[in-house]
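In the design runs reported in the main text, the only information available to the sequence generator was the tokenized backbone. The following block is the verbatim input for one such run; it is reproduced so that readers can re-run the procedure and compare outputs position by position.
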């Protein structure tokens, strides 16, 4: 993954962390949520994807998360999770994400930081892919992803939820910095 310096994205500033955020509409009912894992930074809801990228490049993603070592072993029973994100104006992004090797090998437990890494890594890869493929159009232009639109620095992952269905899936609950809509 590209670093902040060569991707055109910069880390969030404290003023962005305090600005109003707009939640991405959920595609499921709250009644369908089986499990919810909150992600907070410094006691505030959400982890900036730009900050996560900056820390994960140094293998220190736990620094942007309150309670990174919290065990989540009881939530995951397979070697992978089904991930799904529905960003307004784009096709749903659905894929399987493998559990970290240290968990599947039994070296350590599945922790909150592991789930954050799985969710943010998958989301960041998708955002980067959309940004690079300029021919992919957003049917809801206000939600468009790209250098002149919504970027990593505008995206916050507030939680990950397990949604029941024919097969359960994990979905990020995302908020976008309101400044992205003012551009």
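Verbatim output:
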């Amino acid at each position: 993954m590209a670093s902040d310096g060569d991707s055109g994205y910069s880390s969030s500033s404290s003023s962005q962390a305090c600005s109003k955020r707009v939640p991405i509409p959920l595609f499921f009912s709250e009644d369908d949520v089986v499990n919810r894992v909150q992600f907070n930074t410094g006691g505030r809801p959400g982890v900036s994807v730009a900050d996560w990228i900056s820390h994960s490049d140094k293998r220190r993603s736990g620094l942007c998360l309150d309670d990174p070592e919290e065990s989540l072993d009881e939530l995951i029973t397979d070697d992978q999770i089904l991930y799904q994100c529905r960003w307004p104006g784009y096709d749903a992004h659905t894929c399987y994400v493998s559990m970290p090797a240290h968990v599947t090998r039994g070296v350590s437990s599945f922790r909150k930081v592991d789930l954050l890494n799985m969710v943010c890594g998958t989301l960041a890869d998708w955002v980067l892919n959309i940004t690079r493929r300029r021919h992919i159009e957003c049917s809801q232009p206000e939600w468009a992803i790209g250098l002149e639109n919504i970027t990593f620095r505008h995206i916050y992952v507030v939680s990950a939820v397990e949604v029941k269905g024919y097969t359960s899936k994990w979905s990020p609950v995302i908020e976008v910095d309101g400044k992205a809509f003012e551009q």
